[in-house]
Amino acid sequence: MDHPSPHVLLFPLPIQSPINSMLHLAELFCLAGLQVTFLNTNHNQKLLLRHTNVESRFRQYPRFRFRTISDGLPEENPRSSVQFGELISSLQAVAEPFLREILLSSSSDGVTEPPVTCVIPDGLFYYAVDIGNEIGVPVIPFDTISPCCLWVYLCIPKLIQAEEIPFKGNDLDALFENVAGMQGLLRRRDFPFYRLIDYATDPYCQIALKEVESIPRSNGLILNTFEDLDGPLLSLIRSHCQQTYAIGPLHLHLKTKLAEKRMPISASSNSLWEEDHSSIQWLDAQPIESVIYVSFGSMATLSKEEILEFWHGLVNSGIRFLWVMRSNLLRGEESNHQFVKELSEGCKERAYIVSWAPQEKVLAHSAIGGFLTHSGWNSTMESIVQGKPMICWAVYVDQRVTSRFVGEVWKIGVDMKDICDRYIIEKMVKDLMVTNRDEFKKSAEKLSNLAKESVGDGGSSYNALQCLVDDVKKLGR
Ligand code: UDP
C-alpha cells in the first residue's frame, strides 16, 4: 500500500492568540510543502474573513484548506472570558464526533483530499490525543501558553501530593518548594490558578490536569519558544515528553522563512477585530522611543477602578501612551464606549486610544519605548522579538507565571502583580521609560537578538521546525 502523503489537521483554541499562532504554523507547514487543513469555529472564521486578508493570503497555497465547525454556542453568546469554560465544553461536544469522523474516513473532505495523517490540536484539547490513539492517527499538541506555565501545570500532581495545593493560610508571598527549576522564585501569587481553594472543583485546574496527563500519550509537543529563552525549562518538560519541538517565536519564524524564499511578507493580519491603523499614523508623529503601548490582549478585563488607576498613573508619569481599549475591556459591562470617550477627552495631546491595534506593527514602531501588557504569551513573544521592555499586569493563568519570569528571570521589565495603584504605575512607567531605560533596553535587545538567531539558518528553532516537518512526513497510518 502506498504511504499516504502527509496531511496535517490544525485545531486551535477558539480565541485570538492560539488562532494567530496556529495560522503562523499552518503557513510554515504550507511553505514546507505539507497538505494542511485548518479547523476553525464558524464564529471565528466569520470574524477572520471579515477583518483580514487571510483568504487571499492562503490562496497561494493550493494544499491549504479551511474547515469549520460550530462551537455549540448560540450566535448571540458574547464568547468573552466569562463564557470561556462554557465555550470549551460546548466545543468539545461538537469536536469529539467531528474528529472521530474525519480521522476514520479515507479522505478528509470525503472526496478529493488525502486522509489526515497527523493532528495538531491546542494542548487544552486533551481529548484529541485519546481519539488519535484510539483510531491510530498521531497527535502532536501545540501548547500555545508559556512554557514556564506549562511546567507549573506539569508539577501540579506533585504539588497535590506534597500538599502544597490547595494553599494553606493566606500568605500569597509563600514560595513553592516542589516546582523544580523555580525554587526561590515561584510564589503563590504567581500560580496560574490564583488563590486556588480546591483543585478538585476548580474547572480550569481540572482541565490543566487532564492536559498534562495526556502529554505522555501524545506523539510530541510543540511550543512557541526558543532554546535561549527557555532552555532549562525545556529540559524539564522533555522529561515528560522527549519529543518537544521549540519552534518560536512563530511570527518571526514565518517572516524569516518568507524572506528566505524571497516571498512577499504581506501586511498579514489574523485579527478577529478590525485593526485601527490610525494608531500607526499617530506613532509616526511621536519622537523615538517616547511612547508606552498599553494593551491587555483579547480576553482580559479590568474593573472601572483599575482602568482609572492605570489612566491616572500613565497621565501623571508625563509619558505619552497608546492604549488599546477593547469594547469589552470594562469588566461586567457590555460596552465601555462612553467611559472611554470621557477619559480620552482629558489627555488628548499625550494619549491615543484605539479599540484594536495592528499590534505587531505597533511594537515594531520606533516611537514605542515600552509595553504595559497583561503578559499574554503572544504579546510577550512579540515584545521580546522587538526588544521592548515590559510592565506586567497579569490577570490569570499563564500570565501570572510569565510576568514573574519577565521581572525576575529574563529581567526585561517589571511585574506589578496584584497591586493596581496610580502611584506605583506612575513610578514604574518612569522607571521603564526613563530612569532605568538603558538597563532594561540592553537586556531586552539581547533577548531580541537571540530570538532572531534562533529562527535563522541553523538556529535552534529553525532546526526544530525542520525536525518537526520531517517527523510529520514520516508519521503515516
Ligand atoms: N493583538 C492585536 N491587537 C490588539 C491587541 C492584541 O493584534 O490591539 C494580538 C496580539 O498581537 C497577540 C494577540 O492579539 O498576538 C493576543 O495574544 P496574547 O497571548 O498576548 O493574549 P490573549 O489575548 O490570549 O490574552
From TrEMBL:
It comes from Nicotiana tabacum (Common tobacco). This is Glycosyltransferase. Its EC number is 2.4.1.-. It is an enzyme of class 2 (transferase). The keyword Lyase does not apply. Keywords: Glycosyltransferase, Transferase. The lineage of its organism: Eukaryota, Viridiplantae, Streptophyta, Embryophyta, Tracheophyta. Pfam families: UDPGT (PF00201). One of its GO terms (molecular function) is UDP-glucosyltransferase activity. The keyword Glycosyltransferase applies. Belongs to the UDP-glycosyltransferase family. It comes from the Eukaryota.
